[in-house]
Amino acid sequence: MTEALRPKTLEEALALRAAHPEATVLAGGTDLMVGVNFGRAEPACLLDLSRLGELTAWARDDNCISVGAGVTFSRISAELDDLTALAEAASTVGSPQIRNRATLGGNIVTASPAGDGIAALAAYDASIVVARHARADRRIPWDEFFLGPKQTALADDELVVAAEWEPVDGPGTFAKVGPRSAMVIAVASICVQLDEQAHDVRIALGSVGPTVLRATRAEQLVTQLDWNDLDERALQEAGALAAADVQPIDDLRGTAAYRRRAVEVLVRRALAWTLAARGKVAA
Amino acid sequence: MNAVTGRPGRVGESARRIDGAPKTTGEYVYGGDLSAPWMLWGGTLRSPHAAARIRSIDTSEAVGAPGVHAVLTAADVPGRPTFGLEIADQPVLASDEVRYEGEAVALVAADRPERARAALRLIRVEYELLEPLVDMELALDPAARPLHAFGNVLRHVHIARGDLDAAAADVWVSGFYETGMQDQAPLGPEGGLAVPASDGGVDLYVATQWLHVDRQQIAPCLGLPEELVRVTLAGVGGAFGSREDVSVQIHACLLALRTGRPVKMSYGREESFHGHVHRHPSRTWIRYGATRDGKLVAADVRLLLDGGAYASSSPAVLANASTFAAGPYEVPNVRIEGTVVYTNNPPCGAMRGFGAPQVCFAYEAAMDELAEALRLSPLELRLRNVVGHGSALPTGQVLTGSAPVREVIERCRAIPLPPREPPLGRDPLDYPGGAGRANRGEHIRRGVGFAVGFKNVAYSEGFDDAAEATVILSDAPNGPIAAVRTAAVDYGQGLYTVLAQIVRTELGVEDVIVHPATTESGSAGSTSASRQTTMTGGAVLEACRAVRAELAARGGDLTGGPISCTREFHHRPTDQLDAEGQGDIHVSFAFTAQRAVVDVDTELGLVRVVQIAAAQDIGHTINPLGAEGQVEGGTAMGIGYALMEEIQVEAGLIRNPSFTDYLVPTALDVPPIVVDFVEEPEPGAPYGVKGIGELSTVVAAPAIVAALRHATGRTLTRLPVRPDDLLGLRPDSTAHPRAPVPDVPGQQPVPEYAGLELGQQELMKGHE
Amino acid sequence: MIVHLTVDGTTHIVDVDPLRSLATLLRDELGVIAVKNGCEQGECGSCTVWLDDELVCSCLVPAVQADGASVRTAASLANGGLDTVQEAFLDAGAVQCGYCIPGFVVTVADLLERDPHPSEHAVRDALSGNVCRCTGYRKIFAATRLAEARRP
């Protein structure tokens, strides 16, 4: 029988984590239980974080937005709906039943290249806040945290407690493609966030590489544009640059060729949507 | 079990389901919900390989594991070692060789489900891997490794009519079409409970489609006479053909008899994918010739079905596919060569449509090509060629029943197109891609496509699949009540409600009870082939009339005791195919036409089905609401077949045995479906009814793909259509040289003349 | 581990593995068959229940997280007779094999409790996590609107 550790406070959880580096960490359960139910995962020791009030809060001020690892996607959609990119991503995760359980922290630790929440964090240039017993928290930039499919920089004795980022002033959006109209794991996804003050754009792409990626060359191109004088050809070029830079694979959910094509189109569209939304949305 | 009582509702009215209330509260007991005191849990060890010899099986560790009461291998099967619907070619438990991934190798019974699973992992099987034979064309090669002693050609059907070589066509079109392996994916996985009886027999409660053919396969394997195997229907969570073959039945009984305790077996979703047959993948080469004024003069078809490792109902599926392969059209010169082969892929068998959907995809695509070549509208070409009453099919069979095909097409055409929508600013769910929000009005092309299809009702090729039913009229304090005893299965399609409607109508009673289906009643035949409203409905109707006559003879007085009448309904006899594929082999036919409207995001290859318009020939409507539900549900399954559903098999291994990766349509994938019924009574059927369950699944995918071709201009020769196909990223199927016609001596499944024992044919012959 | 939970008003104490899914705990240990197992991956919604008034797929809830919780199933809606949603499903012809129906009934009841007059978008979003293989969903949408209209 699996041993279950059930801390009630973060401090207790970190102490247990330090004492049980082999334990499997449980948040909303929506990823772990898929493996357990099919006999693919049989953890001997379980660290259940669902009772930690510290992880289920979000906070925001002028300098920082912080979302606890235990905040569910349903709550993100409902309570942080002005963070358009994140809220749209959250609303496309699984089904309503899944979104009621699945947490941002679970999405982060699972570290799937298709993680919808991760794409939004990449577009926000977020850091993952990692805690360890009797040590100061680490803030790991997202691109140093996600190392590969299901691989992260999280140490065995650490817990993800939050994601945080600087507020960005400008429109954002999220979109993903898959073979049916609901409940799809992204075959390719995109999250775009404009930064009006810095005249900057972030383009995050999911399911087209070993981790969520940023389309750096496309971003640079768009940064150089005059956003008040939209140039369709430049957007096409941005799409082509992004498509050239991704590293998609063939798997049973989609082909590399399709993913590359989808990136080209999604980049162009999401840029057009966000650029057109300027002045209409404050996020 | 679930006995059901119903509220009023007569023939022609939208009666509420008589088994509906407990289904909404969760009290209805499905096969996987069963339990009994002292019950053990059974588990199945399955082959992880598509092709291997079994060198050894070591169960010693599992036998000693906690809570384990029995571990069984092939050596523990007391009776016949094999089973099968038509041909008993599948081992109950593999002994020397496994022929597909998922083949059962050993069984365990334990006191708890997790202990049964743990014990399965302790069984050591040593395999010697063989090169799996996984391509259906390679299986035709006489040099290919034979998977069964008699070779890899399970059946070949040859149909020749007129003189194809002399056909004077002005225009020829030809095409090559492929379809994927679809899963029935009923929501309720397989489940049942076997209880050993004091008389040495066993009582089995199980979700199935035909109690008697289950028993006929179970009893010989147990080494018991049939009367000691009593089968009772548990609640059935959908079937669609997947429960036509046995799954847990023999295994649960073996474990129960061995342990002397009730044994429950219920599959999870992954095991379900391995534990039932699927829809045959197909390759079809088709060539139509027509005159310049649009009259078909020739059809030349070769089709190949991948039967997988065991026969299941493949011979009958092939007969259907072959006899329908030239379409519901009058064609004077026809040659059809159909073959089904054994491979090391998962076994295929019955699924809604039973051979008709694969060929409909091919012949309707070819008809659209022909229409284009002739510069005719697709509908006009069909109207010039469709069969009608008195027409002859390629088998020479003359349509003696109702065949309102022209009316079906006209009524489909008359259904209004969907209302216009603003190009921009819609709800994101109203664009291709739906909840993914990838489209806000960009690059959408609308397409409209039609398809016409047909299918037989009831069993063919000389089978007398009779149905028995008993109707009992009794006196009760609040007036007479009626009860129906039948072994017929209602797996959700609404048969029991229909039977109650018939009884209410014929006997004028309000309260009707349908008793649980058991083998204590005579066989009602399978709930498949769109046959039960005709067959068991017919038996109930005749029994009601006998009850009425008896009541009249008693002067309308029931005080002398209940009146019970049992009747057996037979459809008209049919023939077998002769050497040239000629014969009156099908009982009757039903026809349908659908029009699909789609929006395609031509940059992302995303599809939104906007509307389906369906007109269907149903003879006479018993329950309008239920009939609509059949068309809507069948259409949804066709949407899945067209756009997303495919068991992906690589080197014989299923890569997506889960609902995470085998995608079925969600509520957001199914558009409004406008249904119109054409009612022209079928002679010889009760009230003139026709079966309705399968037809929409036959035509929905061809109609949708026609609409996709219209929207994109692409050829689209493969089902399901993937985004890559819509973007031109994957080339169309390449026509290999036409599959050779195998050298087999006749129209029958090979094993019959190879001397193997037959399955359901035995049952049929027992009735002769 | 020992898990305490209330199911449709009845308190249970069971000894199970903490990773046992709530769905199989309810079905196999407690005999609660109003919860159906359809996929074990949260993809079909057949096992939908309320867990402390929140809609969840019980197959994805480990027993350890159900400890101390209150679970409500479709059975809880019927008090003596069927409730509005259940009646609407029958009258609209939304039930065929019925395997998905307890999950759908809970989902629709949850939607109408939170949003008595949901928009078309809200209805479609709410029903997107429950798979039905028989009906093609059209009559389930109709049942939802019928229940909405009939609710007191």
Structure commentary:
The complex is a heterotrimer of chains A (283), B (768) and C (152). Chain A contains eleven helices and 14 strands. Chain A is of the alpha+beta class. Among the domains of chain A are: 1-49, Uridine Diphospho-n-acetylenolpyruvylglucosamine Reductase, domain 2, CATH 3.30.43.10; 172-276, Enolase-like, domain 1 (2-Layer Sandwich), CATH 3.30.390. In chain A, strand 2, helix 2 and strand 3 form a beta-alpha-beta unit. The radius of gyration of chain A is 19 Å and the shape is globular. Chain B has 768 residues and is an alpha+beta fold. Among the domains of chain B are: 4-30 and 466-569, Aldehyde Oxidoreductase, domain 4 (2-Layer Sandwich); 34-130 and 189-236 and 243-275, Alpha-Beta Complex (Aldehyde Oxidoreductase, domain 3); 381-455 and 586-727, Aldehyde Oxidoreductase, domain 4 (2-Layer Sandwich). In chain B, the strands form seven sheets. Chain B has a seven-stranded mixed β-sheet, sandwiched between helices. Chain B has a six-stranded mixed β-sheet with strand order 10-18-17-16-11-29. A five-stranded mixed β-sheet of chain B has the order 1-22-21-20-23. In chain B, helix 9 (356-374) packs across helix 10 (378-385). Chain B is globular. With 152 residues, chain C is of the alpha+beta class. Chain C contains six helices and five strands, in the order ββαββαβαααα. Chain C has helices at 22-29, 63-66, 84-91, 101-114, 120-127, 138-150, and strands at residues 2-7, 10-15, 48-51, 54-57, 69-72. In chain C, strands 2-1-5-3-4 form a five-stranded mixed β-sheet, with helices on both faces. Chain C is globular. Chain C starts with a strand and ends with a helix. In chain C, 68% of the residues are buried. Classes of the chains: A alpha+beta (283), B alpha+beta (768), C alpha+beta (152). At the A-B interface, strand 11 and helix 11 of A face helix 16 of B.
Q: So how many helices of chain B? A: 18
Shape of chain A: globular
Provide the spatial order of strands within the biggest beta sheet of chain A.
4-5-10-6-7
Please compute the radius of gyration of chain A using only Cα atoms: 19 Å
The low-confidence parts of chain A are none
The gyration radius over C-alpha positions of chain B equals 26 Å
